[in-house]
Design goal:
Responsible for synthesis of pseudouridine from uracil-55 in the psi GC loop of transfer RNAs. A hairpin with a 6-residue loop joins β10 (144-157) and β11 (164-172). Helices cover 22% and strands 36% of the residues. The protein has eight helices and 19 strands. α3 (98-105) crosses α5 (178-189). The relative contact order is 0.19. The strands form four sheets. Strands 1, 2, 3, 4, 7, 10, 11, 12, 13 and 14 form a ten-stranded mixed sheet that branches. A five-stranded mixed sheet has the order 15-17-18-19-16.
Length: 294
């Protein structure tokens, strides 16, 4: 069975995030596998997978910032806001200038209130929004505050007289829908828009540079973990080293003295093993999750 830790996977197109989890369960020979943030089947790139005890770190991974490269096609709207859905409207976009495209992206940068794509995994009255859409329902989701800290144009291409392809580089907060950026740019320019390519290049500090493909993981099985639990926590959180006495208290879920470290942060035992992820409140450092072996 595989060790506890994280795997940075370069997800291929055409697979759901759950498909990747299923494959890793087989390779790692354990049921305790989860992912740190869904990627649509069309999308490729960084998918952080937790194995065994490291699945408990995934809550923090899901909430971290993300980076993407994407291609927005102007001139066509689709039911899913990406290339997987049928085209529902086409408006010639050949007249849209490069300057208008750049100007149209400006209001989509910074802190924005974004309406998620109706075909998303958000639950409406207990059922996923995409299921309701597929069943013919009109679904309008509430806007949510997200941050797009960087939205750079890499290239503007004109593959045909009626469509314009815009390649962008995006840094954003968790919960941002790149499909919705494509839709909203198209709407602002009056020609419609959807996403034709999406590649996630980073999740928190985990990047494509360290990502393994599924064939590479197949070759390494069952030793598929590339970041053991302690190393993963050390990469992801501020670090605190506990004394032997503190380690004993913390491993049983008890509080220890606070040090004024902005949390959450990882606490390590004198032998270098990971004890817990803690945050400081009410004058004490208290465990959010205890990771010391039982």
């Amino acid at each position: 069975m595989s060790a506890d830790g994280l795997i940075v996977v370069d997800k291929p197109g055409g697979m759901t995030s759950h498909d990747v989890v299923s494959r890793i369960r087989r390779l790692a020979r354990t049921r305790r596998v989860g992912h740190g943030g869904t990627l649509d089947p069309m999308a490729t790139g960084v998918l952080v997978i937790g194995v065994n005890r490291a699945t408990r770190l995934l809550t923090y991974v899901i909430g971290s910032a993300k980076s993407y490269t994407a291609t927005i096609r102007l001139g066509q709207s689709t039911v899913t806001d990406d290339a997987e859905g049928e085209v529902v409207a086409a408006t010639p976009a050949g007249h849209v200038t490069d300057e208008q495209i750049r100007a149209g992206l400006t209001p989509l940068t910074g802190e924005i209130d974004q309406v998620p794509s109706a075909v998303s995994a958000i639950k409406v009255d207990g059922q996923r929004a995409y299921k309701r859409v597929r069943e013919g329902e009109e679904v309008t989701l509430a806007a949510r505050r997200v941050t797009v800290s960087r939205l750079d144009v890499l290239a503007i291409r004109r593959p045909g007289p009626d469509v314009v392809d815009v390649d962008v580089d995006v840094d954003c907060s968790s919960g941002t829908y790149i499909r919705a950026l494509a839709r909203d740019l198209g709407a602002a320019l009056g020609v419609g828009g959807h996403l034709t390519a999406l590649r996630r290049t980073a999740v928190g500090g985990f990047t494509l540079a360290e990502a393994a493909t599924l064939p590479q993981l197949e070759e390494r099985a069952p030793d598929v973990v590339n970041l053991p639990l302690a190393a993963a926590a050390d990469r992801f959180f501020p670090r605190r080293d506990a004394t032997a006495d503190e380690a004993k208290v913390l491993s049983h879920g008890g509080p220890i003295a606070q040090l004024g470290i902005a949390g959450p942060y990882a606490v390590f035992a004198p032998d270098g093993s990971l004890l817990a992820v803690v945050s400081e409140r009410d004058g004490r450092a208290r465990a959010e999750i205890v990771l010391a072996p039982a």
